[in-house]
């Protein structure tokens, strides 16, 4: 069993790393089997959360309003992880989001990883569900605030240690870190026309144009404009094609 590692979990605005963004990162650094450091921070997505995400996570728009931007928080999280092995439940999901965010800001994020879901699918084929909640219930692991990033990361750390206790001797290969092979697609920065339209739209609807908007990719800018028009309305003097060129 790996003794030194970082367990982490994310909460996001949706399921697609291409379309959605991170709103919370929770992690703990384990050294020689003991928690040595913690990381827990919200991220301001500069967009309203859907009712479904708020109900699932318990996170509200007000909770995120004063949070720092993605670039700053992800930068701190990359530093927190150093070169440790990363552990997660359904690790590929969280790793993809983090990797894409890191590459967007030219930050290194290359790690070997261990996925407790992958382990559970092999050693617990008898269980109807291998979700984090179901496995915590199976082993009597208490998660006081499920679907919040830090608490899910802590529960995952306990699950990893429990699985290793019972199954590492019989299934040693499951506990060997694997290189995370996800390669993020290169993101194109937003066009000059998009940026000009975005600034005009913000001014028209009295929305602050902030540093995070300045760093948007072409696809992010298009989605943000779509959502803003849907919520606040279109500027009559512009055509739809202006923002998609």
Description:
The chain is α/β, with parallel strands linked by helices. It folds into two domains: 5-179, Ribonuclease H-like superfamily/Ribonuclease H (Nucleotidyltransferase, domain 5, 2-Layer Sandwich), CATH 3.30.420.10; 192-243, no CATH class. Helices cover 42% and strands 15% of the residues. It is built from ten helices and six strands; from the N terminus they run E-E-E-H-H-H-E-H-E-H-H-H-E-H-H-H. It has a six-stranded mixed β-sheet, sandwiched between helices.
Largest sheet: 6 strands, mixed
Q: Give me the Rg, rounded.
A: 20 Å
**Number of folding domains?**
2
Number of strands: 6
Shape annotation:
elongated
Average pLDDT works out at 90
Secondary-structure-based class equals alpha/beta
Q: Report the CATH topology name of the largest domain.
A: Nucleotidyltransferase, domain 5
Question: How are the strands of the largest sheet arranged?
Answer: 3-2-1-4-5-6
| Total number of helices | 10
Q: From N to C, what is the helix and strand string?
A: EEEHHHEHEHHHEHHH
| CATH class bucket of the largest domain | Alpha Beta
Examine the secondary-structure arrangement and name the CATH architecture of the largest domain. Answer: 2-Layer Sandwich
State the helical fraction: 40-55%
Low-confidence spans: 238-245
* Oligomeric state of the chains in view: single chain
> What portion of residues belong to β-strands?
15-25%
Enzyme class: transferase
Pfam families: RNase_T (PF00929)
InterPro entries: DnaQ (IPR006054), Ribonucl_H (IPR013520), RNaseH-like_sf (IPR012337), RNaseH_sf (IPR036397)
EC number: 2.7.7.7
